[in-house]
Amino acid sequence: MAEESHGVGGLKYDKSKRSWPGEVNILFALIIIILIFEALGQLLPYMRGQSMLFDFNTNRDGTILNIARIKIIILQVSIIGIIALGVTQVIISGGIDLSSGPLVGATAMIVMSFAQTELVNGQLNPKAVFGAWAFDLPVLIPVIVGLCFGAFIGIINGSLIAFTGIPPFIATLGMFLICRGIAQWWTRGQPVSFPTESYAWLGSGMMPVVWFLLLAFLFHIVLKFTVYGKHTYAIGSNEAAARMSGINVRRHKVMVYMIASMLAAFAAIILSSKNLTAQTGMGQFYELFAIAMAVIGGVSLTGGRGSIIGTVLGAMVFGVIQSGFTYIKLDAFYQLMAMGAIIISAVVLDQWRQKSATAKA
Amino acid sequence: MSEVKLHDMGDIILETRGLTKHYGGVHALEDANFILKKGEHVAIMGDNGAGKSTFVRQITGVEQRTRGTVIFDGHEVDFKGPLEAREAGIETVFQTLALADHLDVPDNLFLGREKTMWNWLGPFRRLDYKSMRADTMAALEKTGVKIPNIRNTIQNMSGGQRQCVAIARTASFHSKLTIMDEPTAALGVQETAQVENIVRTLKKAGEPLILVSHNMRQVFDLVDRIIVFRRGRICANLDIKNESFTGEDVVSYITGAKTGAEYEGVA
Fold first, then answer.
1. Structural domains in chain B plus CATH codes
2. Membrane spanning segments where (chain A) (predicted)?
3. Confidence of residue B265 (pLDDT cuts 50, 70, 90)
4. CA-to-CA distance for B233 and B32, rounded, in angstroms?
5. Second label for A63, Cα 20 to 30 Å away, from A139, A148, A310, B122?
6. A123 contacts: CB under 8 Å, gap ≥ 6
7. What is the pTM of this model?
8. CATH code (residue A314)
């Protein structure tokens, strides 16, 4: 690319003084956390010098990396990561979405009932929700049903927030309970199981990771390079200014919440496909984990700031901590405590950074 | 907005007839008759609370007038909000800046009217950053504002730089009428000069302007005509380009020591 100056009034812009993008900080944090776990692996007596991410001895995969563990780390965050992609957009626009976890539960129940196969081990599917017409439908049907349900819930969320002016926290908290209710009401609490082979393929193996990275790439492009993305940032940054500029703020908000809920619904499809079953309690705490991933990734809860790359890195931090604690054989409750502390410190550090950046100017 | 063409207004861009605004019992603006010709720059002066900003707010649709008529570009208009006024061609630089802090200069300049490619993608059409950047550089170079990097976010800029961006944004719309409400109130000497430069480029381009200002020197430097408000009424209409008025004259109109001949008995 040709050297291009972006200064006016005879001022030149000194590239060496440029502060690096916030995402780099998260990458540093990720590396530091990995190093801490590696150090613990060496230092803790009962670990006997194991490494978390490296594998020097056996070298099964022809690399020095412990590919198996890395795969697991990414795999276990990809489904919540898909939700976090939508939550990121909602938070950038100045809102919040608490309904995504229960929406995963409700969508999984509904979608799975359209994805059931007729014969299980030669017997009629014991978990059948509908009659014979709903067996062995093409995989597109449950996917479309799920995305439509997500869009429907998202449009309600967005419309409530945009047109009645109630705070996003309240609107999506209400939807949180409604979706939990829908999930239980759908089959009166019974799990829905035994999907068709093609449906089961959607979330099999490393497919969740593929979907997560594909969608992350797509929405990175959308947020950075399209009018939709620019308006999302503008509304989160200064809603009055956005309105004065002729942006249809209400319509845009509906669209943001709709996309976020469709991503949560897609996560539900992948999750139910991966588990080969749908249960009413699915997606518990997912809304909070998704928000945590975004926040660790530098998305500002006051709106206007954040990125998909940040959220993906935030998801990785989340995953490394989760499996790191398992790897050093600490119990799950320590995991939760550490996770909480990390979320808080991520926000505190980010605020310090913002303050010093503003003070410098 | 009425689509009926009232009459051929010739070179008049904005006219108000009997424009009145009451806030409950407070008569903030009373029977304001005002004419602005195409290409003309007019200053509105007056003490605090004299009705300057109220007058502007009735024209830009920020508030709804109590009575009176506003005729803009040959049509009687009744804007429901500032957005309607902007769409009709009235651009306003408000005292509270309408900029998005987390976006950079081109993003703010083109907010709501981005240059795009691949428009068949609807809301997901692609932003043409390169062209917006080039246009921003061109628009800002004219103003004399100094910004080291237009790709910096607005939150990292000084008050003067922000104000220049806000005004450059207004100026680049090529609107039919520009209104600035005390654009240099919070600025330093250099920054004020930059803003005044932008006003001069508007004058050269023949774009009409209403400037609300307290700064006597600035007003005498920039505009053709001064309208003085006092206690909600227009009390003087001073053609400073063709007749010799001094700052002291204007002050006596503002304070009430004098009243324009045609406004005797009104204010």
1. 12-99+177-263 (3.40.50.300)
2. 26-47, 68-92, 139-162, 169-187, 199-223, 254-272, 284-301, 308-328, 334-352
3. low
4. 6
5. A310
6. none
7. 0.86
8. 1.10.3470
